[in-house]
Amino acid sequence: MLDDRDMMADFLMMQKFLCHSYNAAASEAAGEQLRGDLIDVLREEHMLQASAFEHMNRWGWYQPRPASQADLSGARSQ
After folding, report:
1. pTM for the full model?
2. Model confidence at 26: pLDDT above 90
């Protein structure tokens, strides 16, 4: 049986996958209405993902390594 931490980790991973999938679908939607609807759903999924991340981070269950100055510089140059 999964504990709370495992369920939240699974939820966060699922939200990341959904955001990626909705982003790809919105990028390839041929119609403006469909694209707009997918972007609305994507925005909602991002809010759920952010909420899950914030809760897990607050509880110490998900603590990503802070970006170093070198990481930031590398990302800017890409």
Report:
1. 0.76
2. yes
